[in-house]
Amino acid sequence: MFKYYFNKRPVVENSQVNNVSVFVRHNYLLIKEKLKEKGEDLDLNKEEDVKLFVKIVEQGVTVNLKQEKNGEVSTTEYMNPMKLTYTKSNLNKGFIFWFVCNLCGRKVRYLYFPPNSEVMACRRCHRLAYKKQNENDSKILRKLMRGL
């Protein structure tokens, strides 16, 4: 069977993904440990501590990602800043953290780093699709081609 690959968008499954929950948890533990050495404490249930945490992350955390191209591992030259924001939980028991997309500025839970890219951005900015979405496009295209 002949497969058509017209208008295939890059796929989420081939991209590196950065989840905001994992990112915040990891950096919270590192920052809390550093502040503990200075005799300070960080509690993410207090808004002033959340603001401090976001400020520290935005000033000090950048990501330089690795890609494998043709068997060679290379790192990106562009240092991706990690911008965070937060909203109050609707239960009034804490805060919900969000990434701010480096290209469009939207609040997102995931930032993607597809192959052949230098920037971490949201799915919309990278025009990423899911594998299943590309398969559905192929089915439609095959039906159209049969009609010709």
Describe this structure in words.
This protein is of the alpha+beta class and 148 residues long. The chain has one domain. Helix content is 36%, strand content 22%. It has four helices and nine strands; from the N terminus they run βααββββββββαα. Strands 6-7-8 form a three-stranded antiparallel β-sheet, with helices on one face. A two-stranded antiparallel sheet has the order 1-9. Strands 2-5 form a two-stranded antiparallel sheet. Strand 3 and strand 4 form a beta hairpin. The longest helix is centred in the N-terminal third of the chain and has 18 residues. It is elongated. The N terminus is likely disordered.
**What is the arithmetic mean of pLDDT?**
81
The total domain count is 1
Q: What level of helicity do the residues show?
A: 25-40%
Poorly predicted spans: 1-6
What is the tally of helical segments?
A: 4
Radius of gyration: 20 Å
Q: Strand percentage, roughly?
A: 15-25%
Structural class: alpha+beta
Strand order of the largest sheet: 6-7-8
String of helices and strands: EHHEEEEEEEEHH
The coarse silhouette is: elongated
- End-to-end separation: 17 Å
Number of E-state strands: 9
Main β sheet profile: 3 strands, antiparallel
